[in-house]
Amino acid sequence: MLTKGEWRVNMQGGRIIVTGIALLTALALLASGPVALADEAPTGDNQGQPTASDREQIELALAQGDFKAADRHGLMISLYQGKWFMPKREKVRRCIVKRESGANYRAVSAGGRYRGAYQMNRRLAVGASWMMQGEVRKELGAEAVKIVKALRKKPTQQWNRYWQDRAFWTIWRGGKGKSHWRGGAHGCLQRR
């Protein structure tokens, strides 16, 4: 386990793997390609920190399934980090994903009722899409709202990682929705 400020470099299959708290956050959002050209990079005190516009562009790309959003297997930091995201509860979210689906965003329960990484039933998933729609309109615009509406017609396990993570945090709502994961959250809620 890495502590804040630590990082590690590994060689795996000829690839260099760099891990660390801040680096993992940036890589989860940016690893698959640059968002801004070098001349558009922030300057001054914000150097190295994405601007609000950069974050919106990244989030829209994730909503469209670009970058890491298309990868639907394994644990990584939540791709949604908006209004409802709680960094201090990220370990709880990861624990729930592991317990519910083995970190498989394509998982379907044996009876077919619960789907996706968070094993949501259809009613909960569609309800989450309605809850997300207004915020998505404000944050990302009409194009992203079309995506949210299309989610209602898709089984949850077909939603990309970004939308499943966003649905989780929207339902979680600062802890008010944690009862939706009573079984899968067993042993997870004490994690900080």
Description:
The chain has 192 residues and is mainly α. It folds into 2 domains: 1-31, no CATH class; 51-181, no CATH class. It contains 6 helices and 2 strands, in the order ββαααααα. A hairpin with a 2-residue loop joins strand 1 (7-12) and strand 2. Helix 4 (122-140) packs across helix 6 (161-172). The two termini are 14 Å apart.
- Beta strand count: 2
Q: Point out poorly predicted stretches.
A: 1-44
Q: For the report, how would you describe the main beta sheet?
A: 2 strands, antiparallel
Mean pLDDT: 78
Write down the Rg: 17 Å
Distance between the termini: 14 Å
Neighbour order of strands in the largest sheet:
1-2
SS field, number of helical segments:
6
The helix content is: 25-40%
Give the structural class.
mainly alpha
Strand percentage lies at 5-15%
> What general form does the structure show?
globular
- Provide the succession of SSEs: EEHHHHHH
Taken together, the total number of domains comes to: 2
Helices and strands in order, then pairings?
Elements: E1 7-12, E2 15-20, H1 21-30, H2 52-63, H3 90-101, H4 122-140, H5 142-151, H6 161-172
Antiparallel strand pairs: 1-2
Helix pairs in contact: 4-5, 4-6
Give a brief description.
Helices cover 39% and strands 6% of the residues.
Give a quick set of tags describing it.
192 residues; mainly alpha; 2 domains; two-stranded antiparallel sheet; 6 helices; 39% helix; disordered N terminus
